[in-house]
Amino acid sequence: MIIQWCLKGISERPSFGDTEAEALLGMGIKSNWLFNNPTMPIEQAIPAVQNLLGLSALLTHVNNYAAVRTTSPYISLSAGVVLPVLPLRL
User: Fold this and answer.
1) 24 assigned to some structural domain
2) Given a cut of 50, is residue 70 above it in pLDDT?
3) 8 Å CB contact between 46 and 37
4) 3 or 58, greater pLDDT
5) Is 8 part of any domain?
6) Residue 1: is its pLDDT beyond 50?
7) Alpha helices of the chain — where are they, by DSSP H?
8) Structural domains counted in the chain
9) Rounded Cα–Cα distance for residues 41 and 34 (Å)
10) What's the Cα-to-Cα distance from 30 to each of 1, 10, 33, 82, 86, rounded to whole Å?
11) Is residue 22 assigned to a domain?
12) SS3 70
């Protein structure tokens, strides 16, 4: 298994390099749900987010992220592509 260090949604800029990325990974990465509920104390927020985790939320996060980008309890750490299935040529 290959595990990659990845960051989501951080734009490239001179003030953000490897040192800053490693520091951020050490502190943890918040889901958009946590970012959009900043007034909730973390002690209440984490159990609330954990209650939102489930198959339906995961499928929506993966397949319709635009609809749930601010409310998703999940964190996307990698990007992929969907390729159309090409017909087999004989």
Assistant:
1) no
2) yes
3) no
4) 58
5) no
6) no
7) 18-27, 32-35, 42-52, 55-63, 65-68
8) 1
9) 10
10) 24, 13, 8, 26, 38
11) no
12) coil
